[in-house]
Amino acid sequence: MTVPVETQPERTTLSWQRTGLGLLAVAGLVGHRAVHLGRPALLVLAGVAALAGLGVLGGLAPARYRQVQRRVAGDRAVAAPWAARAVTATVVLTALATAVAVLIPG
User: Which residue from 9, 61, 74, 101 has the fewest beta carbons nearer than 10 Å?
Assistant: First the structure.
């Protein structure tokens, strides 16, 4: 089955939005734990994760959408390894920091 070309930018945007929302969800969970345990350092971690999620949602997702639209219209490749690496690193670092935060005895 052939997927219409018009859906490529929208699908890419939705995947970036899901990533940003996932980061915000993790930030909320870590923030809740920070308040529950009274640990300000965890609250800072939650803030950093929230800023990363907002950066993906407000910055990278719209920029990537416009870039994919231009590339599809110009019949060029849409891959952006730099963006994938940047978001992967952000998600992995957030996950590692969150794992450490969850493993701290309360």
Answer: 74
Question: What integer best gives the mean pLDDT of the chain?
Answer: 83
Q: Which residue has the tokens 């920070």?
A: 34
- Report the 10 Å Cβ neighbour count for 86: 14
On the CB side of 44, CA atoms within 13 Å amount to: 3
User: Judging by beta carbons within 10 Å of its beta carbon (0-12, 13-18, 19+), is residue 46 exposed, middle or buried?
Assistant: buried
Cα–Cα distance measured from residue 34 to residue 90, given in angstroms and rounded to the nearest whole number: 21
Identify the residue whose tokens are 């690496």: 85
pTM of the model: 0.74
Give the whole-angstrom CA distance, residue 12 versus residue 56.
Answer: 13
